[in-house]
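Hi there. Long-time user, first ticket. I'm pasting a complex I've been working with (about 915 residues overall). I'd like to know whether the download I got is complete or cut off, because the file seemed smaller than I expected. Thanks.
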Amino acid sequence: MTKVHVTTTVNGEEVEFLADPRETLLDCLRDKLDMTGAKEGCGTGDCGACSVTVDGTLVCSCLVLGVEAQGKKVETVEGIADGEELHPLQRKFIEHAALQCGICTPGFLVAAKNLLEKNPDPTETEIRYWLAGNLCRCTGYDKIIRAVQDAAAEMRGAA
Amino acid sequence: MPKDELKSEYKLVGTRPDRPDGLDKVTGRARYGADFSMPGMLFAAVVRSPHAHAKILKIDASKALALEGVKAVVTRADFPDGLTGEDWNLQENTIANDTALYDGHAVAAVAATSALLARDAAKLIEVEYQVLPHVTDVDEAFAPGAPAVRPGSADHSVSSREVDLPDNVRHNVVREIEFGHGDVEAGFAEADLVREGTYKTEATHQGYIEPHACVGQMGADGRGEMWVCTQGQWFIRKFCAAVLGIEASGLRVTASEIGGGFGGKTTIFMEPLALALSRKAGGRPVKLVMTRSEVLRATGPTASASMDVKIGMKKDGTLTAARAVFRMQGGAFPGSPVDLALTCAFASYKLPNVEHIGYDILANRPKCAAYRAPGAPMGAFAVESLIDEMARELGLDPLDVRLKNAVAEGDKSSYGPTYNRIGLVEVLEATKAHPNLSVPLGPNQGRGVATGFWFNHGGETSVSVSVTEDGTATVSIGTPDIGGLRASIALMVAETFGIGYDDVRVNVVETGALGFNEPSHGSRATFASGKAAVTSAQSCIKQMCQRAADKWGIDAEAVEWVDGAAQPAGPNAGKFPPMTMKEIAETMGATGGPISGHNETTMDGVGASFGTHVVDVEVDPETGRTTILRYLVVQDAGKAVHPSYVEGQYQGGAVQGIGWALNEEYVYGKDGRLQNPIFLDYRVPVASDLPMIDTVIVEVPNPGHPYGVRGVGETGITPPLPAVANAIADAVGVRMKHLPMNPPKVLAAIKAKANG
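Hi, the file is complete. Here it is re-exported in full:
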């Protein structure tokens, strides 16, 4: 099948790749751009491990085609930290032991960051429903929710 | 670093530092199974049986091989003949011989220059099947006249109950188990109340978020490498070598970071296919990553169970006798955890009279793998449900009944051995004291308690610790870090040396770097690798004391190790300033060479862990939906080396158990095909299903470990199944005996009760 030339912006950098029209954005990030931070846990949009934002909208990159990224702005887990400076969510995930195996962590961080950009002071229930599309099989979610609450509080204080 | 609120005589053990691999795991840098690539790498896809049971008449790969970029196809013909026992089982499960035994059973595999091309090629491999009769339900597979899953494999030889089981009828019983002690009938006669019940649990999957993935490379000489997500790289090496008929030493296996395992990544599934394809493709590396539906159809899961339990109880709650008859299917292969389920079933109770009978049964389902305390949650569902029902009938507090019968040090266990120091009584007392138990309940709300047990495991262990040139320590362990292991090992090693937590680097190493290691299974990694690391560090300390003694010209016995430095032991040894680990390390090349310690052993001293859970639920009487309002886990850790990760094990185990109790099950159609092979339909708990999970860490130190560690990973999944059932019974008065307790089932039970 003829491949399509795609130019897009990932974490602020312009990149290009050749995509088979059947390949997902996740495939393209991982296999063509060597950005393996986003993970494939299901390939059907049920687990959220591949969460990225496209023009600010939180999506499962396994449900977006690579060719759809043309001209868009994609943000992934690799772009959350500011150089050596971790994002408060990243620090709080480590401090609260909000990851055990860590495979779901990139997706949770992308989704939680997107939540806090829209709602800097979410309730526990709002956090739980926003993150309901991100599966974690290790933690029982308790420490993840606490890490997001703590990061939100810190970010509000810093603002 | 803040001292933890738990009382501790240690400087570091018991604190909560950041995990050393945290930075890599929050930035996306950590490399998991599917994140590894090699130059010249091919991609593989697997052809799987769409039938539950079928004769494979013909496999034609000519169309696939004709595609540009397709480099190799393998079938069973590419694997050696003549394997026996579990080696044969592993090979047969890796790729079917002449019969597909379950929906999803691998039949052929193909390697091509891209993942898409491999998938396209797999669709072009034509397989001709002759469909055979199948059976998937455990009771149907046990029944006389059931279709034989593997004709001729029935084995009733170890049982004294052949009269019950004419072996020409029950084709699928491949193992029978009987053990116990006392006189069960006499015990029932002594009881004031005797009750029995039949309970059923459905198969569930471990549900790790990371699908199985590997890159395998093997040449015509039978030597190769593998990079794989696994709980145990040595098991991958051993099992792949057996299935491929090569020397184990010919294969070097590196474990990637692992995205969850829960027992399901302690064995092989598709790894030999990658190696066989590589060999056939001239030694090019082959990457094989499962899809989620492949994970659900062909890996894991746990067994499904059908269980009869009978218990005798006196009016004061004293147990007089118990009998369990468990039937479990573990797929088309022997090995359901019916033995472990039975040994755990009554392990929390002093029982003078107890009888266990078990049947391991074949069915047309995937080969079951270990899942967190294999077997124990099913047995607990049956036993703890019945004990709860009897306590309620006698008007007794269910926690008091458990305390009255709780085992303690010196008691003979239900499964034979005598307990050493265990913490069940302490756990039950801490549970009774918790504020959650005094929260008032509203209409349609109920509270359930249950207790659980897991033996924990020592296992074959090899660890090496070396003193680094800069005075820090480098630790090589062979147990992959699934949930904070590097942090726990670093804490124990730093404590032993008397150096900082950040001065210890822990590496999970490949099979060439250490002797054999069992996987991170059996709740053993912190216990066994930790104990071996402490022993290794102590060996380093001894050598460092010798270096100091040599320098000072005194006997090594006159040198002691205090706070990270050698010093003269008392005034008679001489007056010398302490010599730090850093000073010794910097000059070690000139004072005798590198310093390292190592420990290789089958680890002894394992300590069992008991836990008690209390759950409050609300049941919606109109829909049958159960909401978890409050959840408490109380468990004996022995010693919590890093309390945050101990709490995490408690919380994660509880939530997996909640999923098993309320939602999760393998649903098979009449055609024997799995109906729910994606996460949309195989629904695991999500964040909005749950409250916070409260935890209490009880610490009754294990005398068999230098820091008292017991192992905490598995016990936590055992109590939730019955605890939730008991809470539902308390809330709406219906006794659910068949998991999962999903809304339709609970609603039907409520309606049946209302209709009398």
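A couple of notes from our side: Chain A touches chain B through 60 residues (CB under 8 Å). DSSP finds five helices and five strands in chain A.
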